[in-house]
Design goal:
The protein is an alpha/beta fold and 216 residues long. The protein is built from eight helices and six strands, in the order E-H-H-H-H-H-E-H-E-H-E-H-E-E. Bound molecules: 1,6-di-O-phosphono-beta-D-glucopyranose and magnesium ion (MG). Magnesium ion (MG) is lined by residues 8, 10-12, 45-46, 170-171.
């Protein structure tokens, strides 16, 4: 029986993964990279801003200084944050509210485990902020997924052992991180075929939690 569920944010609870892709593509084009694709973007899921930038720069022959790289990451973030202006409750993915309500009814704790430094802003704009018992984000960590740090911080904030935690993730890096941290992993969306995951579903909307042995 599970005692806590730790949710990734972008791509699991909200649709912001699409906005990350758009902002990185715009930066890539500014740098003369015209072949930045969704497959490249899949490798940016769950990893930090600077690691995501490296995925873009791999596609360029040019060599940039650390200072230039910081400026590129800042530029992408400014653009991305601007695109969050219109973010609202309507951008919460299907099935999320129902699953959280089920967990509350069953006394199961909930937390956020997101690589994003924008997690607090996103949670506020989508009205999700008060729904979790703890928040662990890119503001609490120094190591990026697949390192388990962000999930271990979440478990610690909840006062739970990793072995009684389930992580919900849409990235391969996040599934790897959950398993490295000794937690159960549910893969959804882009990660749904990840062989390391204990459970898989298209989305939280189709995850049959009522019949899942973790909750019985
Ligand atoms: P930021 P998650 C991750 O959020 C995104 O999946 C990833 O693409 C992004 O690079 C990372 O946050 C950092 O985001 O630039 O907003 O700090 O999926 O872990 O909730
Ligand atoms: Mg994600």
């Amino acid at each position: 029986m599970i005692e806590a569920v730790i949710f990734d944010l972008d791509g699991v609870l909200v649709t912001t993964d699409v906005l990350h892709f758009k902002a990185w593509k715009a930066l890539a084009e500014e740098l003369g990279i015209t072949n930045f694709t969704k497959a490249d973007n899949a490798r940016q899921r769950g990893v930090s801003r600077m690691a995501s930038l490296e995925v873009v720069l791999e596609k360029s022959d040019k060599v940039y200084t650390d200072e230039e790289k910081l400026a590129f990451a800042e530029k992408k973030n400014t653009n991305y944050v601007k695109s969050l202006d219109t973010l609202s409750e309507n951008d919460v993915l299907a099935g999320v509210e129902k699953f959280i309500a089920f967990l509350k009814e069953n006394g199961i704790k909930t937390a956020i485990g997101s690589a994003s430094k924008n997690a607090p802003l996103i949670l506020e704009k989508t009205g999700l902020v008060g729904k979790f018992d703890a928040i662990s984000s890119g503001l609490d960590t120094t190591k990026s997924k697949p390192d388990p740090e962000v999930f271990l911080v979440a478990a610690k904030k909840l006062g739970k052992d990793p072995s009684v935690c389930l992580v919900v993730e849409d990235s391969d890096a996040g599934i790897e991180a959950a398993k490295a941290g000794g937690m159960y992993a549910l893969a959804v969306g882009e990660a749904k075929n990840n062989p390391l995951a204990d459970y898989c579903a298209d989305s939280l909307d189709t995850f049959d939690y009522k019949n899942c042995k973790l909750f019985n």
